[in-house]
Design a protein that fits this description.
elongated, Tetracycline Repressor, domain 2, mainly alpha, 2 domains, 80% helix, transcription regulation, HTH tetR-type domain-containing protein, 9 helices
Amino acid sequence: MLGDVTAATSRVESGRVTRERLLEAAISRFAEGGADTSFDVIAADVGVTKGALYHHFGSKEQLVEEVYKEAVRRHAERVVAASGTGAGRERLQGLIDATARLYGSGTPFYRLLLRLHVEAGSSRPHLAAIALRVQRRQRAYMTELVAAGQADGSIRDDVDPAAVGDTVNAALQGLLVQQLEPAAAQRRATESFARLMDTLL
């Protein structure tokens, strides 16, 4: 009986690892060639059959959804880490700087994130609920950083934390789209926003 339990645990762990490898392969392929990359190509990257992809994700659109969730999670992890220490103003600026740097990196990963954000509002409406949840969480986090700055005296107390959070969130979404612009235009946009925040806070 113990052997049966051990075997079952091993199968579960093996399935989890395979799923993670498939998701990683999908992120890489989608970043390079778009979300229309075939299941066959992704499965071949991992050395499994196309049936394994259907087993773990059900359909192409469910795989796209999982890729979007994971891309959003990875980005959030990076910017939260960049805004984890210091006074409230310093933390907010750390988030803005990290976001601008990552969005402007021009990497396939961030081009994929932009593409899926856009598709959430157009050709893949089933992603819209994810995008809306992300926006709510981002605004809430930025509002918390402003309130923390007001509490520690690093941000003036006559501004509305929620209004600043909304403004920063909207501006950062604009910076995501700015990656389509030449590098010099991206830098100008980032610098202009930094000056605005200095004046506002």
